[in-house]
Design a protein that fits this description.
By secondary structure, the protein is of the alpha/beta class.
């Protein structure tokens, strides 16, 4: 009845509100918030956990081992659910909260939703300074949670229980807005969490949220169509926004009908299957020779759902200076880049309207035929690099090929920063759309295993995520192997052991500095002997996983078949060569010293100046 109230603490009201938010996926009503990743401490254990404990059947709570990794797992979940469901991550105050800043940055850069609830200090300041409080002498209102302002789409601190009623709908609307999607952060002061307030019953009514599909401006569509009709060598760049819009089939059909080749960004890889007739490979710094050749000669580029990061554009050297851009994006910021015709709107709806505006126009069939020939050449190059050899230690490409062959059609490949991203972006042949998750928008080392846990939770056993991680990434963050064993969410983890941070060593040496502090053999060590080797298989077994060390790509393929039949997370390890990489790269703008005593650095600087001379002028 209107006017009725219920007396609850702020924490109890927050949890009740979250439990009553729903969305629809493929016609089925499901909870908008699928669960909570939590590490409890002072700041969230006495009030928030008290509210979460009774609703475990509606809002399950999962125990993480590290605040950063559990928030990264929430990101992996959101990716797998294509931003249609959201996970929550909660921590205590101080270091527990700050551990999640990196994950918030990852979600922000990748336009992904996560609700972060962090404990905070007392608003009344009576017990100050409390445990883990950082005091700012000139501004006592600042706490460590203010650090999240730089990496949140929505930020609030609840200093009175009534503020929930204004704040939470705005936080959710932000996370579900395709043009503004990203992390929402809510700081929960300890004394505010405990306060009771008479909330109106209406606040807790069930609500079904839908993700909006903004339509584009007609004039911009007409302008885009007019420009595209002038093209002789057009190119489509498919970004992550295509996947989140559900526009994969529409992009494939549009490209096939119009005769336009499609290349993919890192986030967009998996929009099309590898063998789709219009698919021509990944573009940019970790791109294919085929896609980069097409980019260099394109006269009109139709960029769909991409923020045009430097790894896509080769630091804006991958395209001719005279190339014109049409950018379809739900975010105005992303659409309005490099003098593009900015068509702001949902990818699926905008593409439909652009298709209608083009009428019967299509490109000369020779353009797509040439693109397909270039892609066949690229495929042959991949075959050459992925073929088994008699080398004592396999290359990344050979390992990627072995894992790819053994993967099932529905199995998702998950990777992140290090040497693996370039190799899987180039060499992973996608068998089914939306089965590729490479976190390279923020290049967050440590995402791999945590993201695999989140993916396994999202897919609920329908497929098995396959995580590929280097030894450096494994050592940085591996505790969610135990999390996945603890919670029963199986994944297969392939650890490529190449003796340290091999890809950054490659870059270091390429720019003129001898190997230094990247590979273990080049680090300051306790003795002159070789650094100790980590037995990753034994380490994984100690966390409850099954594990096996593999001696060759053929051995790895056999082990992957065994791993598919195990009853829990399984870790496979293999030594990998640190100096051999698949070609196909575009240029990348980096800071290289203007002056140096090293001839190799001076040569690298000269090369860098040549790269900058090729860059397109614009913002």
């Amino acid at each position: 009845m209107a006017g009725d109230t219920v007396r609850l603490t702020m924490a109890q009201a927050l949890v009740r509100y979250l439990c009553n938010q729903y969305t629809t996926i493929d016609g089925e009503r499901v909870p908008l918030f699928a669960g909570v990743f939590a590490i409890f401490g002072h700041g969230n254990v006495t009030c928030l956990s008290e509210a979460l404990e009774p609703v475990q059947d509606r809002l399950p709570t999962w125990r993480g081992q590290n605040e950063q990794s559990m928030a990264l797992a929430a990101i992996g979940y959101a990716k797998a659910r294509r931003r249609r469901q959201i996970m929550i991550a909660t921590s205590s105050i101080g270091p527990g909260a700050l551990n999640m800043v990196t994950a918030a940055g990852t979600a922000h850069a990748n336009r992904l939703p996560i609700l972060i609830l962090a404990g905070d200090t007392f608003t009344n300041r009576l017990p100050d300074p409390v445990l883990q409080q950082v005091e700012h002498f000139g501004d006592p209102t600042i706490t460590v949670n203010d650090a999240f302002k730089a990496v949140s789409r929505y930020w609030d601190r609840i200093t009175h229980p009534a503020q929930l009623m204004a704040s939470m709908p705005q936080a959710i609307a932000t996370m579900l807005d395709p043009g503004d999607c990203g992390p929402a952060f809510i700081a929960l002061p300890q004394d505010t969490q405990e306060m009771a307030f008479d909330y109106p019953e209406e606040f807790f009514e069930e609500k079904v949220w839908t993700i909006p599909r903004p339509r584009p401006d007609r004039d911009r569509v007409a302008e885009a169509a007019a420009l595209l009709r002038t093209a002789k060598k057009p190119l489509i760049i498919s970004g992550g926004g295509v996947r989140y819009s559900g526009a994969e089939a529409a992009v494939a059909a549009f490209a096939a009908e119009r005769g336009i080749p499609v290349v993919e960004t890192i986030a967009g890889k998996g929009t099309l299957t590898h063998d789709d007739p219009v698919h021509c490979g990944p573009v940019g710094v970790v791109g294919s020779t085929s896609a980069n050749a097409l980019a260099a000669e394109a006269d009109v580029v139709l960029a769909i759902g991409t923020r045009l990061q430097d790894f896509t554009t080769g630091s804006w050297t991958a395209f001719a200076r005279g190339a014109a851009f049409i950018s379809i994006n739900a975010a105005r910021w992303d659409a309005t880049k490099h003098r593009a015709v900015a068509v702001v709107g949902d990818a699926l709806e905008t593409l439909r309207e652009l298709d209608a505006a083009l009428g019967a126009w299509k490109v000369d069939g020779a353009h797509l035929e040439r693109a397909q020939a270039l892609f066949r050449d690229w495929d042959e190059l991949l075959d050459e690099h992925q073929a088994q050899s008699n080398a004592p230690v396999p290359s990344y490409a050979q390992v990627v090929g072995a894992v790819n062959r053994a993967a099932g059609e529905g199995d998702t490949l998950i990777a992140a920063a290090g040497g693996i991203p370039g190799e899987v972006a180039k060499g992973w042949r996608v068998k089914q759309p939306n089965t590729f998750d490479l976190e390279f928008g923020f290049s967050c080392m440590g995402y791999e295993i945590a993201g695999g846990w989140g993916n396994a939770m999202a897919t609920q056993g329908a497929s098995t995520p396959i995580v590929m991680v280097g030894d450096g990434g494994y050592l940085m963050m591996n505790s969610d192997i135990y999390s996945s064993v603890l919670t029963g969410h199986k994944m297969i983890v392939v650890v490529c052991d190449n003796g340290g941070f091999a890809i950054i060593n490659r870059l270091q040496e390429f720019k003129g500095t001898p190997g230094f502090n990247n590979l273990f053999k080049d680090c300051r060590t306790a003795s002159a002997v070789d650094p100790p080797l980590v037995d990753f298989a034994k380490h994984a077994e100690a966390m409850g996983a099954h594990a096996r060390h593999c001696e060759s790509p053929a051995d790895l393929e056999a082990a992957l078949e065994w791993a598919k039949g195990t009853d829990r997370t399984t870790v496979l390890t293999i030594a990998t060569e640190a100096y051999t990489w698949t070609p196909g790269d575009a240029a990348w703008d980096l800071g290289v010293p203007e002056v140096s005593e090293r001839e190799a650095v001076r040569a690298a600087r000269a090369d860098q100046d040549e790269i900058r001379a090729k860059q397109r002028v614009g913002v």
